[in-house]
Specification:
142 residues; mainly alpha
Length: 142
Amino acid sequence: MIELNLTLIVQLAVVLSLMVILSQLAFKPFLNFLQARKERIQGAEQRARDLQQRAEELIERYREAISAAQAQGGAIREEIRRESLAREMEILQKAMAEANQLIQEMKNKIKEESFAARAGLRLQARTLSREIAEKILGRSLS
């Protein structure tokens, strides 16, 4: 059996006093240190989440800016293409008009030259036929 004597009471007093002293000197500072460390870690994790969210927002804004720039570039490219097609059509129409004018001038020149050639050939035919008739008849035709 356990005897309740003074040694047991002294040992109990020593253990309780050590618990109080160690609680104040070791356990509370250690627990405070763990709590502070936990709070720092949670704060760092929160800052990391905030930074991650901000980075995602910036990436999204960057993507939107790129999309807007690509759309604007596409619109500019389309406008340039339309302008170049209009300019090309204008140049082609001008070239066609010039070609038609040149063709018409050539036709008129050919017509004039053919009239002149016919007139010259008629004159030569008359002269030649007169000469042939003179040679066949042996006399001069007046």
